[in-house]
Design goal:
Layout (H helix, E strand, L loop, with lengths): L1 E4 L7 H20 L4 E4 L6 H9 L2 E3 L14 E5 L7 H9 L2 E4 L3 H14 L5 E6 L5 H7 L12 E4 L9 H9 L2 E6 L5 H11 L7 E3 L5 H15 L5 E5 L8 H12 L3 E5 L15 E6 L5 H15 L2 E4 L12 H22 L2
Parallel strand pairs: 1-12, 1-13, 2-3, 2-4, 4-5, 6-7, 6-8, 8-9, 10-11, 10-12
Helix pairs in contact: 4-5, 8-9
Length: 350
Amino acid sequence: MKIFIAKYRGACLGIQEYAFEPIQRLTELKKRFPWLHFFCYPPAHNRNVVRMAEMAGISLVKSIADIPPEFDGQAMYIQSAHGGSSSNRSLAGQRGIIFGDMTCPLVVRNHRLIASYIKRGDDRLAVVIGHAGHQEMIGCLEPEAISSLQQRQIILLDPRSKPMLSGEDIRRVRSAAEVVVVTQTTLAKSETEEAVAFLKPLLPKRFIDGIGRCGATTSRQEALIDLIDRCGVDTVLVVGDIQFFKSSNTTRLVEIAQQRGVKTRCTIDTDSVDPSWFVDTKILGITAGASVLPKDFDAVIELVQSLTSGELVQHEFSATTEQMSTKARDAEFERIEFELEQRVLAHSKK
């Protein structure tokens, strides 16, 4: 049996730099400031990453509103790479909770783009293509720097809904002076194309194409398609969490493989790998969602190879390159550390 490992797979730079690395740095902060209690939304949609956060002493909450009041003035809330409601920052300030923003720069880019066009006038609209209820969509529908009234100028288009837009929303799009269109960064390429095909005939002459799917998401999907279509893969194993935290990017990889008619299995780590999955498999393709820990992916590869005695084959493929700056993350941690030190200094003078 041959085993192709997708050239583009696993943890994207955004997750590495704005989820995995911050957990390690928060562990260091906890040693320096033992009185501080850490809270965050799950840093990545992956059970093992969540466990890593909990082992570092970080408590998981859906939002700042879920932090018990007894922690006011002695807590920090870390906004995950997915982003979140614009009310989080102001609510943190009201309660004396230190706010740490680890939103992925690509998600921040969408928030800013939406806000900038909405503020041009009440005859402008933003159409956000994404899945209702996903954490990333919460921030896109409630970006900072605009009022609650202006939030009404943002319309969610969910590709899974039929119809995708209500009759009233279609009327609003057609009559708008200008429309900006953005997408959830982890959508499947096919979902985006379907939604855009539906939306384009409705758009006014003046519209801004702000569609910016994550390059890491795109490259992982394209690499998997190439494995199946060009390399002749007959079984696909996706490493990622679709059971506990239902990772969006992992789910899209599973769907892509299933849509192409190949046998598809998914595992979060080595614990749930079943040797029977590989019976009669001639060419196996293995990939991983963007929220998977590198050590978990490597362990799955090692286990599968030992179970099958398969031959690892290099996957040659060129796709969208990833570019991610760590400057924003580092600057945010510098700000957090300064605020903590100032609080300690103020407390010592009392």
